[in-house]
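New to this. Help decode both lines:
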Amino acid sequence: MKTIDLKGLTCPAPVIETKKVLEQTDIREVTILVDNTTSCENVKRYLESQMFDVTVETVGDGYSLHGIKKENHKKTTIPTQAKIVVFIDGETVGRGSDELGRILMRSFLNTLKEIPDRPWRIIFMNSGVRLVVEESEYLSILKNLEELGIEILSCGTCLDYFQLKHKVGTGRVSNMFEIVSSFTEATKIIKP
C-alpha cells in the first residue's frame, strides 16, 4: 500500500498528484492525506473514477482517504455521443447593458432544455458561479436542467474567492482538473 501526503496543496494539485502516482505503478491500495474538505471531495471523486472503493476518515485537522482497487473491474466504453459543455464565466451574456445581459442569460439557460442535443455539463467559473447560489434568479432554471441529467459544475476556487461555497444551491463544487478534463473530453464547447 502507498501513502501520499498532499496536505498543504491547493486545487487542483491534490488530484493531479494523485493521478501522477496512480499512473506510475499499478497501485491496488492507496492512502491519501489532505487537509481540507474540497481536496477530500475532489480526490475521492477522482479515485472513484479510477475504479477504487474509497473510505474517508477524519484524522486530526485533515482527512485520510483509503482506496482499494475494485476487483474484476472493466473499463466501460461510453457509446460515442455528443459531449457538449457549456462554459459560463460571467453573470450576463454579452457586453453593454447588464440588464439586457441578464435577460439574455435567462433566455439562453431556458433554451438549453429545449434543444435536442442537450449539454453534458454546464461549467461555471469566475463571477459565473454567482448563478448557482441560493439567491440566484436563475436557480430554478438550473435545478430543472440538473433534473434533466445535465451536470452543473462550479469552480471551487471561484466560490471560495467570492465567499459563496456555503451558498451553492445546485450542482456540485468542482476543481480545475475536472474542468480542464471536461473541456478535453467535450465534442463541443459553447460559451454564451
